[in-house]
């Protein structure tokens, strides 16, 4: 009987202890959930420790996350850089094409103006289709031939002046001997404006380095100014009168001091030929 009471007593006390423990836990939770109260020293220490531990633990993850974001940003920047470089190349190409087109348009406009000026003559516009490097200053090939009315010995010009004359003709193309060819420029009759009059001479050679002709045979004792225009005389059957050859650059005399020798800067740039005009006299 005594043993039974002792066991019953133990169970009651155990129940009371459990209830008290639960109550204490609830009180502690209630107090800790109160945000308005101040933390006690133990809570402060625990909070500080937990904060430090959280920073230490999260630091590597933040570092890795930042690196991934940095790499993604670099990749994005690099892709945009490649896109911009590609656009830059395209822009350079467009600018180059535009400059080339503007140059061609300018030359075509000059050719149209020339057609107006040469209204008293028969002309035929042509495009240069080939030019041999080995014979750069001797001849060119144009895209007009006998089917277009081109004949041998017709004069060929551009808006700046005399280019040369037709030397060979096929049905759909022709070869033009350039005035820069020594065999072509030799003995072409020219005249130089001196005041209200002209003096006459002959082209004897061409110098490709200085782009100048040598004009000899001027026996008249007249003053020739630097910059005076040199044009064709119309003598012969090839070049009509008044076609531009160039301008006087230098005046000297021959070895016997009997006649003047002129250095004439060519009006035509033989390194830059794209379009030409085949020209003949109306009477031909």
Description:
The protein is an alpha+beta fold and 284 residues long. The chain has two domains: 43-117; 122-284, Beta Barrel (Thrombin, subunit H). Helices cover 39% and strands 29% of the residues. A six-stranded antiparallel barrel has the order 1-2-5-4-3-12. A hairpin with a 6-residue loop joins strand 10 and strand 11. The longest helix is centred in the N-terminal third of the chain and has 77 residues, at 41-117. The protein is rod-shaped.
Task: Name some characteristics of this structure.
disordered N terminus, 6-stranded antiparallel β-barrel, 2 domains, alpha+beta, rod-shaped, 12 strands, 284 residues, Thrombin, subunit H, 6-stranded antiparallel barrel
List strands and helices in order, with pairings.
Layout: H1 2-32, H2 41-117, E1 122-130, E2 139-142, E3 155-158, E4 161-169, E5 174-178, H3 182-185, E6 188-194, E7 197-207, E8 212-218, E9 229-232, E10 244-253, E11 260-266, E12 275-280
Antiparallel strand pairs: 1-2, 1-12, 2-5, 3-4, 3-12, 4-5, 6-7, 6-9, 7-8, 8-11, 9-10, 10-11
What is the CATH domain class of the largest domain? Mainly Beta
Tally of helical segments = 3
**Class by alpha and beta content:** alpha+beta
- Tell me which CATH architecture of the largest domain applies here: Beta Barrel
Overall morphology: rod-shaped
Contiguous runs where pLDDT drops below 50 for at least 5 residues: 1-8
Strand arrangement within the widest β-sheet reads 1-2-5-4-3-12
Any idea of the CATH topology of the largest domain? Thrombin, subunit H
Distance between the termini: 158 Å
Q: Describe the largest sheet.
A: 6 strands, antiparallel, barrel
